[in-house]
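wait is this the right file?? whatever heres the structure
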């Protein structure tokens, strides 16, 4: 991503870089932990956002668990959904693909307007 910034002038805030690294870490960790076979990750920059897509061989779609402050671990999907502008999980011919869209730039915040963490909505990409 820093190469895309330096060589192609892609706008990239530190927050955008940090959130992208967090999402990649969560999605790839889950794929390696729960899928029985191979996994693949693709990054695609689209305007001022990056799409992180992780495919794995397990066809079971992830489900965000109910909030539980006492639960230790297993908050990865909740985190990904909270920091993403868009999120989708879909079955593939083999396995599934999880895609998250993260803003690469800091969103402008105007006094008096409410800002939702991680972006505008959680709609499918």
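ok assuming it is, sequence goes like this
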């Amino acid at each position: 991503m820093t190469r895309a910034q330096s060589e192609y002038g892609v706008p990239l805030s530190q927050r955008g870089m940090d959130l992208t690294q967090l999402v990649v870490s969560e999605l790839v960790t889950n794929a390696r932990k729960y899928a029985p076979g191979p996994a693949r990750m693709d990054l695609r920059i689209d305007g001022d956002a990056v799409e992180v897509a992780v495919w794995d061989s397990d066809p079971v779609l992830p489900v965000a668990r109910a909030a539980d402050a006492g639960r230790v671990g297993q908050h990865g999907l909740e985190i990904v959904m909270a920091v993403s502008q868009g999120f989708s999980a879909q079955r593939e011919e083999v396995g599934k693909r999880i895609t998250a869209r993260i803003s690469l730039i800091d969103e402008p915040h105007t006094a008096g307007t409410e800002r939702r963490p991680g972006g505008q909505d959680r709609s499918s990409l």
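The first helix runs from residue 2 to 8. so i think its the right one actually
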